[in-house]
């Protein structure tokens, strides 16, 4: 595999990073809304978001991307592959992160909420200043773990013809007929992205476990 082929892989790597970042950031924003709805105490909101989470956790990401791209096209909404994948990853991430953060919010000691109410803090201030900072700390290891899964999940973007790292590797492999070499390099690039995050998540988990004793 020569310089040109490696450069093409790096272009695919760039799009993998961009897709992961967009899906994660937008998923965080939407996931926060899902988490807050899940703990809102409103039965309708809780049922709706519970169903939303069940749908995205109970179906493969591959199928979700397929439905977003081809399903919307059937109703006349033609989306660029990049936009479709970004939407699909955002929906997927929001469901998982919403459930992760719901659990983290509920893991905050009830006394914190009661103390905030005793200080006459309104709901927004209570969540922003008391509950969410503690919940974020609790959720960090699981959130980072999900980000690792999301990065690897971008490889499924090829279902709609989007060229990210895995598809770039497949294209090069079909050209130079060196699949072991090409996908060995692809695997190394994924490892270099995911391994530091995995180590960070494990360290945070050990740190928070030690501080909780």
UniProtKB/TrEMBL annotation:
Transmembrane stretches, start-end: 6-39, 180-204
SUPFAM superfamilies, alphabetized: MetI-like
Membrane disposition: Multi-pass membrane protein
Pfam hit, one: BPD_transp_1
InterPro entries xrefs: AA_ABC_transptr_permease_3TM, ArtM/GltK/GlnP/TcyL/YhdX-like, MetI-like, MetI-like_sf
Domain of life: Bacteria
CDD domains: TM_PBP2 (cd06261)
A GO-annotated cellular component: ATP-binding cassette (ABC) transporter complex
Molecular function terms from GO: transmembrane transporter activity
Residue intervals of the ABC transmembrane type-1 domain: 13-201
Subcellular location: Cell inner membrane; Cell membrane
Keywords noted in UniProt: Cell membrane, Membrane, Transmembrane, Transmembrane helix, Transport
Biological processes, Gene Ontology terms: amino acid transport
Family the UniProt entry places it in: Belongs to the binding-protein-dependent transport system permease family. HisMQ subfamily.
Name of protein: Polar amino acid transport system permease protein
Lineage per the UniProt record: Bacteria, Pseudomonadati, Pseudomonadota, Alphaproteobacteria, Hyphomicrobiales
């Amino acid at each position: 595999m020569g310089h040109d082929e490696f450069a093409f892989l790096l272009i695919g790597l760039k799009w993998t990073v961009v897709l992961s970042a967009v899906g994660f950031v937008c998923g965080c924003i939407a996931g926060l809304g899902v988490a807050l709805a899940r703990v809102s105490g409103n039965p309708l909101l809780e049922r709706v978001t519970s169903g939303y989470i069940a749908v995205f956790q109970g179906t493969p990401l591959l199928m979700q991307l397929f439905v977003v791209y081809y399903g919307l096209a059937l109703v006349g909404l033609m989306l660029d592959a990049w936009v479709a994948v970004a939407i699909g990853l955002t929906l997927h991430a929001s469901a998982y992160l919403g459930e992760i953060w719901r659990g983290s919010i509920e893991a905050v000691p009830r006394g914190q909420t009661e103390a905030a109410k005793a200080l006459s803090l309104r709901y927004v201030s209570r969540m922003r200043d008391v509950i969410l900072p503690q919940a974020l700390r609790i959720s960090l290891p699981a959130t980072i773990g999900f980000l690792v899964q999301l990065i690897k999940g971008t490889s499924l973007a090829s279902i709609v013809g989007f060229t990210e790292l895995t598809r770039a590797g497949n294209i090069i492999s079909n050209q130079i007929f060196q699949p072991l070499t090409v996908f060995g390099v692809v695997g190394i690039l994924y490892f270099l992205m995911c391994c530091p995050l995995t180590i960070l998540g494990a360290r945070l988990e050990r740190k928070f476990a030690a501080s909780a004793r």
